[in-house]
Amino acid sequence: MRNAISPHERLTATLRFLATGRSYEDLKFSTIISPEALSSIIPDTSEALFKVLCPDFLKFPNTDQDWKNIALGAIDGKHVSIALPPGCGSEFYNYKSRHNMVLMAIVDAQYKFILCDFGTNGRISDGGVLRYTVFFEKHQDSKLNIPAAELVKNGNRSLPYVFVVDDAFPLRTDMIKPFRQADLNTYEKKKYNYRVSRARRIVENAFGILASRFRILHTEINIEPKNIDSVKMACCALHNYLTETNQASYSPPEILDRDYF
Question: Is 106 exposed, middle or buried (0-12, 13-18, 19+ CB in 10 A)?
Fold first, then answer.
């Protein structure tokens, strides 16, 4: 019998697939592993990576103090292109004229994901996708332990902790979103929109860093939908791991937007 494919070879093939977005047919030349074996190895290894990294690097806040440490976060969704699965018709077809699945995420001020939810079909808007997440279910049941309103530093008003979102999300007391373009009739509203957009860009930047490092996100993923979830969640867990342990080379300061006023 031939020697088994070692864990090192499995990990190498998986990381190369995530970082380059190359097909199984292409990877077989550099990994010396058959496409049939890769189609099993890569999803399994991706799932293992997520399970190992998640407890330490993709922890969801559970207590009042955990939320205060990050002061909530910015929410947005990223559409991930996929090859049309057999028999799915227009299930994943969206307004961009592509077949997509949505990665919904909450990001803190350090460009790290604190929650990722993947798998909703691309026909649904970001606000609608949010309703299908575990986060929303816990929020509706008041199980998130979000801190109560507090006095603003150097002020005399109590303000709630909120999530920063864009105009696609519903207006809620725990979400802050910009005014519509048609309603920008005062300087105060325009300044407010600028401040909200500056806070929300964190999640856009996080998606940009993720996609630039894991080029699989720039391709039309041609694997079974049930395996795409493992691949995407592994990318998010690896993003947090590399941001925390090797930020100088993974996301150096010069590639990030910064304000000095």
Answer: buried
